[in-house]
Specification:
- By secondary structure, the chain is mostly helical.
- The chain contains 24 helices and four strands.
- The chain has a two-stranded antiparallel ribbon. The protein has a two-stranded antiparallel sheet with strand order 3-4.
- A hairpin with a 4-residue loop joins strand 1 and strand 2.
- Helix 18 packs across helix 19.
- The radius of gyration is 29 Å and the shape is globular.
């Protein structure tokens, strides 16, 4: 009986993935698995009998078949079960990818990745289908939004990522093709996911050749001349290597089309590198092995990755923000430790006066400091884009404020904003807004303004002995202003959580002030 009970419990755990969904908890600002009552009820309804005895592939095949039923209620419930399963498979794929990456802040990366694909709210959507024997061809409008039946009317809603997987999944094509494998494949191919992973230095295994074969030598030469510190000889050398790589690539494709390279198809990656090494040595280049050739090309890829991450852009922006009289690192000192008893009493008295006199001043100026920090950061970003020599960045200057308005005021998703401002993908809007950098730089700017406000107060209103403490130990501010610093950190922590929720069900103070700024801009 115990063994049977264990088997039954394992089966229930497996089935649980069809009625629980990973989705964003707005109150906690994090993704968690929650039960979908409608999905659970349908899974144990008479429509699906003896499901607990079926294997995973059979369950998915039966649910997929029901997704094509004529009755709207049946197919919408069956799709909801599969959408729940997709959320689990997508999360498992993303977690595995993050584990492969050497990043200091894996939590933020994970949350950003979740926001790309775990965007299904778990609502029961009564979708419509077009005639297609192989796939679930959902009816969409001109903006590729899902058309659903709502009572007696129809309406268009944003299509979750799970519907993209369902629309391309063909269970009849191969016995080895499962919904989990298909979900994993599409998650890794999602442009926003690939862009974020690339920024952290992750690439699919053995993708160097495929990656560089798409780069034009003229394009590489222009980028290196404008954004790198390579000498002209190195730039010309890189151009020659890339030209040879593309020649070998085109030659291999011609041979493959003619059927002349069938023997090398099982090991085509080494075959390509061997062909290129021969070409390189014919040009008398100082490369004697395939690893050395891959190292040289890896330097080209590293430069292109840094360019695509906008390293030159981020440095310029942060340098402008950081060119102030006092940096945050100068504020944080360790002078408080090791003071004598008399000195401790003087500092405690100073702290008491700060609580009584300065803190009311800070609370009165708090909103003004926040507005100034946000305005400074946004305008510096906008000025950088406007004054850039790059046409692409100059063009983004016309989209930046508009994209902020769509996100914070209209509550639109990245994909919806992309359609409005003329971009193709949501990740392009995500890179344009760069909300994490916006909030981090604004927080840093507000801390600097707080320090300046406190310095002015000390010079004008503090007692002489307290001014002496400040002059002798300026780093002690981090200890004396602990309450106001914690308040600023908390303000922006709430905004960081909210950036994953474009609908802004709970609007933070930072979001409200950004709304006021972009509306009045």
């Amino acid at each position: 009986m115990t063994a049977k009970r264990c088997i039954r419990e394992i089966g229930m755990l497996e089935l649980r993935r069809y009625w629980t969904m990973y989705r964003l908890n707005l109150s906690l600002g994090m993704w968690e698995s929650s039960e979908i009552a409608a999905a659970k009820q349908f899974l144990f309804s008479p429509t699906l009998t003896t499901l607990g005895q079926a294997d995973e592939q059979e369950i998915q095949h039966r649910l997929w078949t029901l997704c094509r039923a004529k009755e709207l209620t049946i197919r919408s419930h069956a799709a909801l079960n599969l959408r729940c399963y997709i959320s689990h498979a997508a999360k498992r794929t993303l977690d595995h990818l993050v584990q492969e990456i050497k990043a200091s802040d894996k939590y933020t990366l994970t949350q950003d990745l979740y926001s790309c694909v775990l965007n299904d709210e778990g609502k029961l959507l009564q979708f419509m289908l077009e005639d297609d024997e192989q796939r679930l061809k959902f009816v969409v409008d001109e903006r590729h939004r899902l058309v659903v039946v709502n009572g007696k009317s129809r309406q268009a809603v944003s299509r979750p990522f799970s519907f993209h997987i369902l629309a391309t999944f063909e269970p009849h094509r191969s016995q080895k093709l499962s919904l989990a494998n298909w979900t994993s494949r599409l998650v890794k191919q999602e442009p926003e996911v690939k862009c974020m992973l690339r920024e952290y230095g992750w690439h699919p295994p053995q993708s160097l050749w495929q990656y560089l074969s798409k780069i034009q030598p003229q394009q590489l030469r222009s980028l290196e001349q404008e954004y790198s510190q390579f000498p002209p000889e190195t730039i010309a050398y890189h151009g020659e290597l890339l030209t040879i790589l593309r020649q070998v690539h085109h030659q291999y494709r011609r041979e493959r089309l003619k059927g002349q390279s069938q023997e090398q198809q099982h090991n085509n990656n080494n075959y390509l590198w061997e062909m290129m090494l021969v070409k390189v040595q014919q040009q008398a280049m100082p490369i004697t092995s395939i690893p050395a050739l891959q190292d040289e090309l890896g330097q080209i890829r590293k430069f292109i990755d840094n360019y695509q991450k906008g390293m030159h852009q981020c440095q310029s922006w942060e340098q402008q923000v950081g060119n102030t009289e006092l940096t945050l690192g100068e504020i944080t000192g360790h002078h408080y430790n090791g003071l004598e008893e008399l000195e401790r009493r003087r500092i405690e008295e100073f702290y008491y006066h700060i609580e009584r006199e300065f803190m009311p001043c800070y609370r009165q100026q708090r909103l003004l400091l926040l507005d100034q920090s946000l305005e400074t950061t946004i305008l510096q970003r906008l000025n950088y884009l406007q004054n850039s020599r790059s046409r692409r960045l100059a063009h983004q200057s016309t989209q930046y404020i508009l994209a902020l308005r769509y996100f914070y005021v209209s509550g639109m998703s990245m994909r919806e904003i992309a359609a409005e401002i003329g971009e193709q993908h949501g990740y392009q809007v995500s890179r344009l807004l760069n909300l994490k950098a916006l909030l981090d730089d604004s927080k840093r700017q507000m801390l600097l303004l707080l320090h300046q406000l406190f310095a002015d107060w000390v010079k004008k209103q503090a007692a002489a002995e307290h001014r002496q403490i400040w002059e002798e130990q300026p780093g002690i501010a981090i200890q004396l202003l602990d309450e106001s610093i914690a308040d600023i950190i908390d303000i922006f922590a709430q905004a960081q959580v909210e950036k994953y929720n474009w609908q802004h069900a709970t609007k933070s103070l930072v979001a409200e002030r950004i709304c006021c700024f972009v509306i009045s801009f």
